[in-house]
Design brief:
With about 220 residues, this protein is an all-alpha fold. It has a domain of about 140 residues: Tetracycline Repressor, domain 2 (Orthogonal Bundle). It contains 9 helices and no strands. The longest helix has 24 residues.
Length: about 220
């Protein structure tokens, strides 16, 4: 019977090593692209930032464009995870919308370079590919609209078309993030975004669930 070769204790499997290296490359790419811009960034600079050889980058990503788009996808995937964790235990639909918006603001205040990355994607690939943030919006649309629909059914939000209100809130949130990232320091971004979103949501909110109108 053949003897199985044992993996040394403490050595992670190859797939874990690859996942870790890919993670490091994406983080380095986000930092360099955000700082220098897509056109001025060379793959060698990203390799230097990650502490690897240029050939290592190409083993994971076939081109600078593929690396950039993977970095944008990574940024949105991480944002989605942050929002999911924030709203997991929130049942009230209005609180759920507010909590989700605050989670988005917290994320981009912590990682302002990822706002720059998404803005560059729009500028560099406009008309060629759909923006990554819109791809993720469509993936999450059903869940987002279900929350809005529940708030309308409870009498908390006005009787309007769910799709229209969902789009309006999305544009408000990401518009506030983009404007806030330009006009405010990173430490003020969350405050600016939350104030804008909370003000609109408070104006729309018609009271507690099942509350009877008075007067």
């Amino acid at each position: 019977m053949a003897t199985r070769t044992k993996r040394p204790v403490g050595r992670p499997p190859d797939e874990l090593l690859r996942a870790r290296r890919r993670h490091e490359l994406l983080h380095a790419a986000i930092e360099v692209f955000a700082r220098q811009g897509y056109q001025r960034t060379e793959v060698q600079q990203i390799a230097d930032a990650a502490g690897v050889a240029k050939g290592t980058v190409y083993r994971y990503f076939p081109s600078k464009e593929a690396l950039f788009l993977a970095a944008a996808d990574y940024a949105m995937q991480a944002l989605t995870q942050c929002v999911d964790e924030a709203v997991q235990a929130v049942e009230d639909p209005i609180d759920r919308l507010r909590t989700a918006a605050h989670a988005v603001a917290d994320y981009f205040q912590r990682y302002p370079e990822r706002i720059e990355l998404l803005a560059q994607e729009r500028a560099e690939f406009r008309g060629e590919i759909p923006p990554t943030h819109l791809i993720y919006r469509e993936r999450r649309r059903e869940r987002f609209e279900a929350t809005i629909r529940r708030a309308i059914q409870q009498g908390r939000l006005p009787q309007v078309r769910v799709r229209s209100l969902a789009n309006a809130l999305y544009y408000l949130l990401f518009g506030a993030i983009l404007c806030g990232s330009v006009e405010r320091t990173p430490r003020q971004l969350r405050k600016a975004v939350c104030e804008a979103f909370d003000a609109v949501l408070a104006a729309l909110d018609r009271g507690q669930p099942n509350q009877q109108p008075t007067g």
